[in-house]
Structures are given as C-alpha cells and as structure tokens.
C-alpha cells in the first residue's frame, strides 16, 4: 500500500467488482421498492380523496334532494290551502249573492203585492188554471154566438109582408166553421199580446 495508491492482486479486483455489482443491484432494488411504495401511497391518497369527494357529493345531493322534497311538500300544502281558501271564498260569495237575490226577490214581491193591493186598479190580474187555447175557443164561440143571435132575433120579431102576423121562429143558420190555422191563431196571438202587454205594464209599475 503506497501513499496515494493501493496495489491489489487480480482476485482482489474481481472481488471488488462483484461487491460493487451486488451493491448496485441492491440499490436498484431499494429504489424500485421505494418507488412502488411511493406510488401506492400516492394512489391510496388519490383514492381516499376521490372517495371523500364522492361522499361529499352524495351528501350534498342527498341534502339538496331532502330540501327539494321539503320545499315541494310545503308548496303542495300551501297550494292545497290556497285552493281551499279560494273555494271557501267563492262559496261564501255565491251564498251571499244567492241570499241577496232571494232577499231582493222577496222585497220586490212584497212591494208589488202591497202596491197592487193599495192601488186595486183594473190592471190587477190573476193567474188562471184554464189554458189559453180554451179561453180563445170560448171567446171565438161567444163572438160567433153573438153574430148568429142577432139575425135569429130579427127573424123571430119580424113581420110577414103577406099576412101581417109575426112569422114563426126560424132555425138559426148553421154555425160557421172556423179555420183553425187563421182565426184561432190570430185570436191566440191577440190574447197572448194582450197578456204580454198587461204583464209588461205590471212589471213596469213594480
């Protein structure tokens, strides 16, 4: 062994080379182990972070869903209460309108009856259960009877030109047939017009 150099034999050099190779292999193996450990730890960290993010997202979505359901339930309840209040208001308005109309009708009927009783004029009409066509027929028959009665009386009280004595009673002429499509309809229209005019006058006075 010198001051600056070491003189070795050839087998010592081979041993040193073998030791260096072994150490190099061990170093490489340690590096691989360390790199794998670091990679696994990094992957585990990423997985944990991802799991935390997924958990937080799920919890956020769950909270949002719960809040949405609560809001929806509150809106449904509020809508139902609003509909119920609106229905109650409409029902009260309809009932109030009905009672007001009923009270006005009673007041109008009472005032009309009192005025009719106080006045007692010729425009005080009463409803009859006799149908209008029967009334029209009776009017037509009375008019026809009046028209046929006058010539019969004239024939009874007339004098005979030859003998100067009252002539015997003659048979009345046959009752003229009325056309149901013309005279009855005209009489019906006339009576209906009269009744309508009388009702309009009474309503105007009321």
TrEMBL record:
PROSITE patterns with a match to the protein in the record: IQ
GO cellular component, one term: myosin complex
Domain of life: Eukaryota
InterPro entries documented for this protein: IQ_motif_EF-hand-BS, Myosin-XVI, NYAP_N
One Gene Ontology term from the biological process aspect of the record: phosphatidylinositol 3-kinase/protein kinase B signal transduction
Domain Neuronal tyrosine-phosphorylated phosphoinositide-3-kinase adapter N-terminal: 98-203
Region entry Disordered, spans: 96-128, 150-185
GO molecular function annotation: actin filament binding; protein phosphatase binding
Residue stretches of biased makeup (Basic and acidic residues): 96-105
Classification via PANTHER family: UNCONVENTIONAL MYOSIN-XVI
Protein name: Unconventional myosin-XVI
Organism classification: Eukaryota, Metazoa, Chordata, Craniata, Vertebrata
């Amino acid at each position: 062994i010198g001051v600056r150099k070491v003189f070795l034999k050839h087998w010592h050099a081979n041993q040193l080379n073998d030791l260096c190779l072994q150490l190099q292999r061990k170093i490489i193996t340690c590096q691989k182990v360390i790199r794998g450990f670091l990679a696994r730890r990094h992957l585990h960290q990423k997985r944990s972070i991802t799991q935390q993010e997924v958990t937080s997202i799920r919890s956020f979505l769950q909270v949002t869903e719960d809040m949405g359901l609560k809001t929806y339930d509150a809106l449904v309840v509020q809508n139902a209460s609003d509909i119920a209040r609106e229905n109650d208001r409409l029902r009260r308005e309809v009932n109030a309108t009905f009672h007001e109309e009923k009270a006005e009708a009673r007041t109008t009927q009472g005032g009309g009856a009192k005025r009719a009783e106080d006045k007692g004029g010729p425009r005080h009409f009463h409803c009859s259960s006799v149908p209008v066509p029967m009334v029209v027929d009776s009017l037509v028959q009375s008019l026809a009877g009046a028209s046929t009665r006058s010539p019969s009386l004239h024939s009874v009280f007339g004098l005979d030109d030859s003998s100067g004595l009252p002539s015997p009673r003659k048979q009345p002429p046959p009752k003229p047939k009325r056309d149901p499509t013309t005279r009855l309809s005209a009489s019906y229209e006339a009576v209906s017009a009269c009744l309508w005019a009388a009702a309009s006058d009474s309503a105007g006075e009321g």
